[in-house]
Amino acid sequence: MTTLTVIGVGNRLRGDDAVGSLVIDALANMSDQDLELVDAGSDALSILEYLEGRQQVIIVDACCMGRDPGSVVSFDPAQAQLILDDDPMSLHGLGLAEALKIADSLEMLPESLKIIGIEPDSLQFKGTLSQPVQQALKTVVKKIQDVFKRKLEVIEVLPS
Q: Which tens digits make up the pLDDT trace of 115-159?
């Protein structure tokens, strides 16, 4: 297996938007040289430096997709353009879709990339994770741990 990079995107001060960063916190006890964990914070554009030269990348972010709170959806970069395009200025400044467009145009996208979107319930300032997103966080952490421990390709375990 190649090195797996997991990038969490989110604002820790905006309720469920923190879920990407909290996934990184939850995975932090999996110390391994083949696992790279990145908390990109609330600046989606900062993910660019962690895409180039990587083979397998999973990005976790709260995404408003019109689904039930806590819904977990995985998609590839092309699908991200369709799902996230209507939110060019997200809570992260430039949105994730724009960051992926830039990475694609600069030929920085990794060989294998999956985006895991978690539908938020509340993005309230100084809020905490809602119950549905807390459960989604546990599900996502377990899936990522499974991908890494079983040495699977991210495409295999996280179908769109």
A: 999 999 988 887 789 999 999 999 999 999 988 888 776 666 665
User: What is the SS3 assignment for 81?
Assistant: helix
> Helix axis angle, 96-105 relative to 77-84, nearest 10°?
140
CA separation (Å) from 9 to 43, 98, 103? Answer: 7, 14, 16
Q: What element of type H or E holds 109?
A: none
Q: pLDDT tens across 51-74, in order?
A: 999 989 999 999 888 899 999 999
Q: Measure the CA–CA gap between 160 and 63, rounded to whole angstroms.
A: 15
Measured CA to CA, the distance from residue 68 to residue 132 in angstroms comes to: 9
Which positions ≥6 away from 52 have C-beta within 8 Å? 103, 106, 108
Q: The whole model's pTM is what?
A: 0.87
Structure tokens at 55: 């083979």
